[in-house]
Amino acid sequence: MINTKLELPCGEILKNRIVKSAMSENLAKSDHAPWSGFNKLYSQWVDAGLVITGNVMVDSSALGEPNNIVIEKGRENLEALSSWAKAGTQKNCHLWVQLNHPGKQSPKYLSKVPVAPSAIGYKSHLKNMFNTPRELSELEIWDIIGRFAYAAEMVKRSGFTGVQIHGAHGYLISQFLSPRHNQRSDKWGKDRSLFVIEIYKAMRKSVGEHFPIGIKLNSADFQKDGFSTEESMDVILKLSELGVDLIEVSGGSYEAPVMMKGKKESTLKREAYFLDYAKELKKHTQTPIVLTGGFRTQKGMIEALENHACDLIGLARSMAIDPDFAHKLLNDMNVDSPVKPLSTGFKTLDKIFPLEIIWYTDQLHRMAKGKRPNPNANVFKTCLSSLKSIGIQVLKPVRNSSE
């Protein structure tokens, strides 16, 4: 089942059912361009049917992290992008670029006045990390839509085989979808799905009918007055009718990070965090679904596919510490994921440091330097090393996988 090919609505074919889900590399050069390390990193995952890059920003003045890749007018870096695309599409692997805008989820040290659908600051612990945003104007909204379309065009021109819209985890599109963060009285507030729909339409116009466009979307925000499961289903069905090629199901935000830990104990035992939602979604759409978050065993993956809960299995952390994980699954080696809970050994430090981010990002950096991951790397030493190399900013919010 994992080895089975899958044809997308646009006609492109994925060679198997394994997807390397996005993990933010935080590896770009100072000019936000990729370098040869991306080639080394992504060439190690080409046994998967589809690999999705870490979030690539569409505006250099709106970053989620200091070392984000950016694609915008005047910052195309086509030669470097083409080299990256060539390395990551070996063995007929699809390599899609995840395009993103952080909105107000841009750290204080990067954005003095971030932008958002509404001028509403965070009321949770995140208020210490992000400044209160200003509300986007109509012209600025259309400018951002145009930026997504232009970046998608450059992605196609560079030789990547698709794009993914990041509409989850509290970033700008997710903010527009949420009644908690979008309280506008104009058309962008009355129909909170309009922003992502216009982004999809503009991107489709720029890349044509046969170039894959996927989206990563929350099943819910898991917050009071947030984006609900019913609203999520409605948005996905609208996008499916428009012709989106792939839907990656996730959930939560950095206010409620269930994408990293799951929500309930019963869900954890079942492996996939958002399995129930995906199974329900499958009843209403023919668009292929990627289920990401929580998969640890080959048995659990096969059951999800055979029970028609999803069409593809999304993996991230498993492939960050074992780049051969897809190869092992495809060759029926009955392998389980080496992912395990992380701890420095000190409860206070575990609360302060974003361990799941720092430790796994360090594995990506090792791979970019041509080294093998170290699944036994000491968590405490990794935190100290990160603190030493980039100072107090290591404690700032940094994005990584939803898996």
Describe this structure in words.
By secondary structure, the chain is of the alpha/beta class. It has one domain (6-339): TIM Barrel (Alpha-Beta Barrel). Helix content is 36%, strand content 12%. It contains 16 helices and 13 strands. An 8-stranded parallel beta barrel has the order 3-4-6-9-10-11-12-13, surrounded by 5 helices. Helix 1 (36-42) links the parallel strand 3 (18-20) and strand 4. Helix 1 packs parallel to helix 2 (78-88), helix 1 crosses helix 15 (355-368) and helix 15 (355-368) packs across helix 16 (379-390). The longest helix has 21 residues, at 138-158. The radius of gyration is 19 Å and the shape is globular. The two termini are 21 Å apart. Residues 256-270 and 396-402 have low confidence and may be disordered.
Q: Which features does this protein show?
A:
disordered C terminus, alpha/beta, two-stranded antiparallel sheet
Topology:
Blueprint: E1 6-7, E2 13-14, E3 18-20, H1 36-42, E4 50-52, E5 56-57, H2 78-88, E6 94-100, E7 115-116, E8 134-135, H3 138-158, E9 162-167, H4 172-177, H5 187-190, H6 194-207, E10 213-218, H7 229-242, E11 246-250, H8 258-261, H9 265-269, H10 275-282, E12 289-292, H11 298-306, E13 312-315, H12 317-321, H13 325-330, H14 347-352, H15 355-368, H16 379-390
Parallel strand pairs: 3-4, 3-13, 4-6, 5-6, 6-9, 7-8, 9-10, 10-11, 11-12, 12-13
Antiparallel strand pairs: 1-2
Helix pairs in contact: 1-2, 1-15, 2-3, 3-6, 15-16
